[in-house]
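Q: Given only this backbone (220 positions), what sequence would you predict?
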């Protein structure tokens, strides 16, 4: 591999990392609609130059997660409550039955790794790091769906999750309740280990339904 090729791969990797961090910040509600964010400011926040931030912004704009304001920065796309309800409805149709179906297929050897992914969610909650919490939560759920070996399903659910807004997470963290929410992911792994398909499906349905309530904007 040439130096130019390595540099290009490193650049793409950094751009991807910034994109993931921005997505998580948007979903967690740490970056709010109506506020104009500049690439230099966000670069300083993530410890990178403005260039990968601008590149990541282009990616997010194509996904309609943000709108670009020339010579200013970008603004997060607002998502209506009706859209969040619709997203929840679709997720309930897709995720619980899929995880139910794959529960007997998940190798016992993979369970420690799933617990590690769940632990990353808890770690984010314990540190009140909403960006880490949100990113780890997405990895966990998409990993479970990955056992269905259906890339289109994973892409669809990933897109749905990218367009959610978890405005209530900060309030949960401040109240010390986010850790309890995070630990629900250990329960999901426990139910998978027990191979209780009905229980997994029911618990995951409740988990997603309750999450919709957590997405709501906290009361003033």
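A: Predicted residues:
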């Amino acid at each position: 591999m040439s130096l130019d090729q390595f540099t290009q791969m490193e650049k793409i990797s950094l751009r991807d990392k910034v994109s993931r961090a921005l997505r998580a910040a948007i979903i967690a509600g740490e970056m709010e609609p109506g506020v104009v964010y500049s690439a230099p400011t966000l670069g300083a926040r993530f410890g990178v130059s403005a260039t990968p931030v601008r590149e990541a912004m282009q990616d997010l704009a194509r996904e309609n997660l943000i709108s670009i304001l020339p010579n200013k920065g970008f603004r997060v796309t607002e998502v209506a409550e009706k859209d969040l309800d619709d997203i929840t409805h679709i997720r309930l149709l897709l995720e619980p039955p899929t995880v139910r179906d794959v529960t007997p297929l998940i190798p016992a050897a993979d369970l420690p790794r799933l617990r590690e992914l769940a632990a990353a969610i808890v770690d984010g909650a314990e540190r009140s790091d909403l960006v880490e919490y949100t990113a780890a939560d997405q990895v966990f759920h998409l990993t479970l769906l990955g056992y269905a070996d259906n890339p289109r399903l994973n892409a669809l659910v990933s897109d749905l999750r990218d367009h959610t807004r978890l405005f209530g997470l900060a309030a949960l963290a401040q109240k010390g309740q986010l850790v309890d929410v995070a630990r629900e992911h250990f329960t999901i792994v426990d139910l998978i280990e027990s191979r209780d398909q009905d229980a997994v499906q029911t618990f995951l349905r409740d988990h997603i339904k309750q999450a919709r309530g957590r997405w709501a904007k906290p009361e003033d």
